[in-house]
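[Meeting: bench + compute handoff]

Bench side (C.D.) handed over the final construct sequence. Compute side (W.E.) agreed to return the predicted structure before the next meeting so the bench team could plan truncations. Sequence as handed over:
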Amino acid sequence: MSTLATSSPESTPIRPAVGPWIGAIVTLLALALGVFQLYTAGIRPLDLFTQRGTHLMLVLLVVFLLFPFDRRRTIVSWLIDGLFIAGVVYSIGYLLLNLDAVLDRTGFFTMQDIWAGTIGVVVLLEATRRILGLAFTMIGLGFIIYAMAGPRGHLPWLGELLPEVLAHRGYPIERIVGTLFLGQEGIFGVPLGVAATVVFTFVLFGAFLEMSGAGRFFINLAYAATGQQRGGPAKAAVVASGFMGSISGSAIANVATSGAFTIPLMKKLGYKPEEAGGVEAAASTGGMIMPPIMGAGVFLMAEFTGIPYAEIMMVSILPAILYFAIVYLFVDFIAAKQGLRGLKASELPKLSEVLRDGWVYLVPLGILIYFLLQGISPNRVGFVAIVAILAITVLRWVVRRFALRMYDTEPLPIGAALVLGGRQFVGAFEAAARNAMIVTVACAMAGVVVGILGLTGLGIKFSTLMLSFSGGHLLLALLLVLLASLILGLGLPVTASYIVLAVTAAPALHHEFGLPLLIAHLVIYWYSLDSNVTPPVALAAFAGAAIAGANPMSTAIKAFKYAKGLYLIPLFMVYNPEIILGGPPLVVAWTVLTAIAALPAFAASLDGFMFTRVHIVLRVVLAVGTVCIFWPSFTVELIGLLLIVLVLAINLFQWRRERYGERQRADV
């Protein structure tokens, strides 16, 4: 049976397992998709439509096989599913087989062109409904209806109801379908292009790396490094999620992978179930901002901004570390308040042994980073890294087999080893295809939104709306973007939410409010991640709650609190751009110093604990100090830093006095 039917990395759970013959077909499609992607990434790149069209066709076929119209799979359900499967093959196949002719008659399409395009759009809407839910489908459908609202469209009466700022001339269905399906501004635009190349290649890289045993290595490494500290398993969860972020771009996948080990140990140590699930969800969300492999949105960011992925990766290292530091501080405060200790050394792996047995897993990551920094295409780099993983895995097996024979231990027979390796190989392709379903469908549907924005000019009008609602104040504009990301996050996965805001809000932040383009996109991407942990829909937190056996909403509230670095650090980027763009060494050093000071102040003002409990007045002072550090003035920043140091000193004095009192009572 295909493992594709087990879980979903970024959205709602996959429906129950399918029958064996459907599973076999899905496995073959996953293999075909993986082989096609590796061929085009490392051997022969294909043209835009062939690459994106073939990728989308294979993914949509998998979606309709795994997500039936009726899970009971009645005859009626099969007929409906058969029609949609035929629609996928006909619409995309028609475009690929008649590509030159269709492109030559751009603007003068035949009725057959329009029919094929219409079927393609309908098929995509239905695939979106099945895998991403009704909310995203309605957003896409709403944009299509909006394009028809106007005097020249099929819904002129609707155009009369629109506010003047949103009104446009309207477009007939032929023009809309031509834009969305028969050109490269819609479904087959940049979002799908990124998903069909570099995103899938890196997802496949992560799947192969985890297949080789790297996931277990990173988790053991985190436990060996932090397990003996107070609240050790929780701190290991933070560190492990940072490591797992180097091979996975999904918060939910991180929760499922590392949380299965860390959450039970946190509970055993004394953390409440909702705290354990919340810590893991907040830490796993950080995996999508941790280089070198970040979420799919960062690859899209490179396309939207024209800035090389390697550069975005490098400037993201410090902000990612700051985010994990905030989560780490919350974990430490919880452990200190509840008197939680770490695990015994006998219960933990030894750091030297972990590194000795698993250092080889760092080699593919090193190769990936090296070639990215050399300016080579990320898609080609991903291919090279995958080849490196396979070569290292085979070499490691040969060496270990030889070592076992040296100690007169019979190794696994070659035939059995080949069968096991083959299953793992197929499993990696299936895992990559599972991840690709969510990202590909989301990017294709986001292409519908992008296409309509360009066709109607709504993207330009959005800048006017932002200026109007914010009154020209940057902080209010950022608040509007944050609210928009939370609303979009109720129904959209992170990648789709980022795309929508990237084509609407990012130009406004850049052109109207003067934010550097990269910082505008980084802020939007970080805000989009918050939907993982923000009630009422917090998928990463709900996944953590399921493992912890905790109340989902209570876990989401805890995760929302622990992940507030997603608000703090983007603001720091905005008001201290040196942390991203660089500058004079002294300015950069001062910026980093104030950022480090702001972390414990922010965490303590929210949690009410530092070395010991922080009085409410001092919490207010810490909050004021944190705000001052964000103020774009050296004098105000210095005042903020002094306030934070003062409260830190007072709290440290209180803690020492409490410890002294405890020792005095113990002596009596």
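W.E. noted at the follow-up: Confidence is low (pLDDT under 50) at residues 1-16. C.D. will use this when planning the next construct.
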